[in-house]
Design goal:
alpha+beta; three-stranded antiparallel β-sheet; elongated
């Protein structure tokens, strides 16, 4: 499931965790209970796990649809701040194959969680 984790969010989570530890060490007054930063860390961790799980379940559904040949999938690759994603029609009939968590055809690989029904 963690191969679907958002790496950028994980980096932010680790930085916030280190920041919370440093601020807690610098704090002169010790309080019992959780502070604001600890609540933010817990909430961000829950959101990170929820996002990974939703991508995991979407990927598993896409793999099942591909294996059973029940749906043609519309998958996207690329797309960033300055470009739009490229869309591909993915099905066994179009010559695509499945390798672990990727659909591939020739040298192109697309993650299974970047797809929806066509």
């Amino acid at each position: 499931m963690f191969e679907y984790a958002n790496v950028d969010a994980l980096v932010v989570f680790v930085v916030m965790g280190v920041l919370a530890v440093v601020l807690n060490k610098l704090k002169k007054k010790k309080s019992s209970g959780l502070g604001f930063i600890e609540y933010i860390l817990i909430i961000s961790f829950i959101i990170l796990i929820w996002d990974s799980y939703s991508k995991y379940t979407a990927g598993k559904e896409n793999i099942q649809s591909f294996k059973n040949m029940t749906h043609t999938l519309k998958c996207h690759s690329g797309g960033g701040a300055y470009s739009s994603p490229t869309y591909y029609r993915v099905s066994k009939n179009d010559g695509w194959s499945l390798s672990k968590n990727y659909f591939f055809k020739d040298s192109l690989m697309i993650s299974v969680d970047n797809c929806e029904d066509y």
